[in-house]
Design brief:
single chain, about 180 residues, mainly alpha, Serine Threonine Protein Phosphatase 5, Tetratricopeptide repeat, about 0% strand
């Protein structure tokens, strides 16, 4: 007496295995690409890592927090910059430091007022001396810092009209493009 086993078609199972193999290869490739994109977007910017490592050291001084605060401020993260300055003021002071963290914070908070005051001053200077190139240069820099794009362009054009050979005039016009 012979044992009869049920008949299973090889075509269906082989086709299914081949399709699963192709699908799994493309899936793995897709997952790797998505992971690399995520890693690139979520990685810290250049220059941040050494500052963060310096702050995490057990012998951290307030200088490390101040440096990190400056980095945050330059990159537009003002809340974290303020927090780092508060942490720096709580920590041990640095011998030979030029300014305390709270002085730096006060200067940062008062900067918009100072910029507007300087902007008004240089506007009065160009009313008195309309061909004073350096006054227009100061006004262009201040207008750019204050976000007055149209005024900045006007001042740069005036700089280039007064002194066409001035290299910084060309640099400023390229910056505004």
């Amino acid at each position: 007496m012979s044992l009869k086993l049920p008949h299973i078609s090889r075509f269906i199972s082989a086709t299914l295995l081949f399709a699963l193999r192709e699908f799994s290869l493309w899936s793995i490739l897709t997952v790797l690409i998505v992971y690399n994109i995520y890693a690139a977007l979520s990685s810290p910017p250049a220059g941040f890592q050494p500052l963060l490592v310096a702050v995490m050291q057990p012998t951290t001084s307030s200088d490390a927090h101040i440096n990190l605060a400056h980095w945050y401020r330059q990159n537009g993260v003002f809340d974290k910059a303020k927090n780092e300055l508060v942490l720096a003021s709580d920590g041990p002071s640095v011998l030979g430091a030029q300014a305390s963290p709270m002085d730096i914070l006060t200067a940062w908070e008062n900067e918009p007022v100072r910029l507007k005051k300087d902007y008004r001053y240089w506007q009065t200077v160009i009313k008195e001396k309309p061909d004073y190139r350096d006054a227009y240069l100061a006004l262009a820099a201040l207008a750019y810092q204050l976000g007055y794009k149209t005024d900045t362009k006007q001042y740069v054009e005036k700089i280039r009209a007064i002194d066409p050979g001035l290299a910084i005039g060309y640099q400023l016009s390229r910056l505004l493009e």
